[in-house]
Specification:
single chain; alpha/beta; five-stranded parallel sheet; Adenosine kinase; Ribokinase-like
Length: 192
């Protein structure tokens, strides 16, 4: 039987900023349709421009967070899922918190003072899309956040853990702490 806090995810949170854009926007930022790339310096202004120029939809995303949100929807038990990752202290971070909480996920983000929240521009033209991910703060998670009593309590409460492989490059120490706890307590851990 599912219960509160049964599943904990850890990963790279990205705020999807989705909008129908025009060809001139694609050309301005050298974006090809049906593509998924990491942002370069030339792409960095596009996120604020999208938010101010187009009607956007904000979606709390990133591979692990998406999976946790689906699990939360399937379980239909308030707070059945929890999630940790790193966001910035900015308007996109606030939007991420609002969006994830609305989905019923118990989020405990580490908030980086220097790096902006990771974003993913979802540029749609004629039903085709391109994704441009700016990882930024998503790459800044620290194991010290995991070790805080209020966050470690989520680890102790969870019976299952989901951590996507992307997080291996961000905080291997955090993954090892969770893995050691899971092994010592006969809990299931999935790193994909």
């Amino acid at each position: 039987m599912a219960s509160e806090g049964i599943l904990l995810g850890m990963g790279n949170p990205l705020l999807d900023i989705s909008a129908v854009v025009d060809d001139s926007f694609l050309q301005k930022y050298d974006i090809k349709l049906n593509n998924a790339i990491l942002a370069e310096d030339k792409h960095l202004p596009m996120y604020n421009e999208m938010a101010s120029k187009y009607t956007v939809e904000y979606i709390a995303g990133g591979a692990t967070q998406n999976s946790i949100k689906v699990a939360q929807w399937m379980l239909q038990i308030p707070g059945a899922t929890s999630y940790m990752g790193c966001i910035g202290k900015d308007k996109f971070g606030e939007e991420m918190k609002k969006n994830s909480t609305k989905a019923g996920v118990n989020v405990h983000y580490y908030e980086d003072e220097a790096a902006p929240t990771g974003t993913c521009a979802v540029c749609v033209v004629g039903g085709e899309r391109s994704l441009i991910a700016n990882l930024s703060a998503a790459n800044c998670y620290k194991s010290e956040h995991l070790k805080r009593p209020e966050n470690w309590a989520l680890v102790e409460k969870a019976k299952y853990f989901y951590i996507a492989g992307f997080f291996l490059t961000v905080s291997p120490e955090s993954i090892m702490l969770v893995a050691e706890h899971a092994a010592a307590n006969n809990k299931v851990k999935l790193v994909q």
